[in-house]
Amino acid sequence: MSGLRSNGIFMSAMYLSEIADGSIRGTLITLCSVQINVGILLSYIAGKSLSYKAFNAIMIAIPTIFTLLMSWLPESPPYLMSKGKKKEAKKSLVWLKGGYESAAQHELEAMNQPKAAEAFISTVSITHESITETFKSRGARRALAISVIAFALQMFSGINVVFTFAGIIFKEAGSPLSPEDSSIIMAIIMLVSSIINLVVVDKLGRKPLMYLSFVLNAICMFTLSIFLYIKMRGVDVTDFGWIPIAAIGMYVFSFGIGLSSVPGVIMNEVCSP
């Protein structure tokens, strides 16, 4: 079930990449990360104050509402065009353009131009090629490698370990916060950083945000490692208990401004859906 949920997130990003204008595609895909962080924060708050049954009832209700609302959305125009359904594609475009038929017609005409159609299909459309045929292309293999490496670096950054053991680290540092409160604070930091990422992702670019995120993550983890090593050696670090709290807080912030969402943006921009 968790795997199905994770794949659903990627499908949402793919749908956005197919219906969004190129100038705002990165922002909209990043919005998925913001919404995920909103959900994480609300679930932490609800988990602290609600019973187990009430919490799970809410968790069932939200995706049910999403499913009902999603049924009203049209299929993406690139997908319909790839199936030869031009009338349905135009109808979908008109709906997505807010009823402006002239704008939808102009975009459809651009798709029907041989060169434009070839470029359009190669970037955002679904083709009839098999997986084997697709990966005979050097460009497809390169896009896959870039996407896999980007997501591997995201996981190898240690974010899951930090979230899992943050409460223990805070406790060892002498923090008065409970594990539940620590999780809520980290979720707030992640949400704020993802909102900042939403604002700057199309202005600063993908690579600068990735570089910044990596550098800050490395500094924070190095600082935390030195602190824990010194503490393990028996040195009194009572007066420096704020260091691991600051390091973890800054780590979560730096992860949120880059590594949290940029790999997903990169994948949807370099890979054909």
Automatic annotation (TrEMBL):
Domain Major facilitator superfamily (MFS) profile per the UniProt entry, residue ranges: 1-273
GO CC, alphabetical: membrane
Membrane topology: Multi-pass membrane protein
A GO molecular-function descriptor: transmembrane transporter activity
Stretches that traverse the bilayer: 24-46, 52-73, 143-170, 182-201, 208-230, 242-266
Localization (cell): Membrane
Keywords, ordered alphabetically: Membrane, Transmembrane, Transmembrane helix
The keyword Nuclease appears for this protein: no
Domain of life: Eukaryota
PANTHER family hit by this protein: GH07001P-RELATED (PTHR48021:SF1), PTHR48021
Name the UniProt record assigns to this protein: Major facilitator superfamily (MFS) profile domain-containing protein
Organism listed in the record: Lygus hesperus
